[in-house]
Structure formats: C-alpha cells, structure tokens
Amino acid sequence: HPRVNILQPGCGVGGHCIAVDPYFITAEFPMESRMISTARETNNYKAFWCAEKVRNAMLRFELRHGRKPAVAMMGLAFKPDIDDLRESPAKGITTKVLQSCNNADIMVVEPNVSEHKLFKLTPYKEAYEKADIVVFLVNHREFAGLNYRDDVEVLDFCGTFKK
C-alpha cells in the first residue's frame, strides 16, 4: 500500500478504509470472500488480545505490589504520526482497559491530538515517567526518543523498541 506499511506489527487494523471496506465485499459476496472475512476476524481479535494482555499485566502488578498500577496507554491514532482516530484499535483497547480498570491510574497519551472529548490526555513524557506499566499501541515518532525502562513492565504492541 503506498501510504501504509501494512507488514509492521500493531494492535490491529484501523482507519476508514482497510478496516471498513472489506465488509462491503463480504456482504455482497460471502462465499467468495471467506478469506477476507477470516482476515477481518483475526485483526479484530488482535485488539481484544492486546486489551487482555494489559489487564493481565495490571492484575500481576497489583498482586505483587498490593496496589493498583499507573498505566500509560501510548497512542490512540490508527497509525503512527497522525491525528486520525477513526476505527482505531488503540482507541478501542484503551476504552476496554478503562472500563475494567477498577480505579487504577490510566494515563492516555496521543501526542498528535491536543484534547479529546472522551479521554483526558496526558503528555507522553509525563505518562512514561510516572507509569508502572507502559503500553505502546501506536509507534509515534515522539516515542522513539524515549529511553527503554527496565524498571517497569513494557507491553510494546507496535515495535517501538524493536531491535
């Protein structure tokens, strides 16, 4: 695809084209498009899987430390370095985590958006420094300058610290 490197790791497929358009094909040609349906199901499940990984990390932290963790959810956009949150799996994961957090301190970060009607946004450096668990959902260029922290649990779903 000319604008998106679709072979990069991530927490799912989002946006207003790739995440939505296949449903038009599968509705019109269900038998001929089973592979497309299966691909969409797999990509949709990835966001659920990521949310479960975050929740499990939060439970482990609470059992070890006797308190709720501070969690930094890094990125809401559907792809790096944009402000478009349409059909974003990162936004969905963050919502799922917030709904099940039981008063944990969840810091939501999106460096390309100044404010959001549903999420209270935290500056990325502040969230990164305060977090007990850091969850990279979108590989924004701002995050590339952060030093890896080995004193916290890092869930890197998008390859921010890939070698």
Automatic annotation (TrEMBL):
Transmembrane segments: none annotated. SUPFAM superfamilies: 6-phosphogluconate dehydrogenase C-terminal domain-like (SSF48179), UDP-glucose/GDP-mannose dehydrogenase C-terminal domain (SSF52413). Residues 72-163 form the UDP-glucose/GDP-mannose dehydrogenase C-terminal domain. GO terms for biological process: polysaccharide biosynthetic process. Pfam families: UDPG_MGDP_dh (PF00984), UDPG_MGDP_dh_C (PF03720). It comes from the Bacteria. InterPro entries: 6-PGluconate_DH-like_C_sf, UDP-Glc/GDP-Man, UDP-Glc/GDP-Man_DH_C, UDP-Glc/GDP-Man_DH_C_sf, UDP-Glc/GDP-Man_DH_dimer, UDP_ManNAc/GlcNAc_DH. Signal peptide: none annotated. GO terms for molecular function: NAD binding; oxidoreductase activity, acting on the CH-CH group of donors, NAD or NADP as acceptor; oxidoreductase activity, acting on the CH-OH group of donors, NAD or NADP as acceptor. PANTHER family: UDP-N-ACETYL-D-MANNOSAMINE DEHYDROGENASE (PTHR43491). This is UDP-N-acetyl-D-mannosamine dehydrogenase. The lineage of its organism: Bacteria, Pseudomonadati, Bacteroidota, Bacteroidia, Bacteroidales.
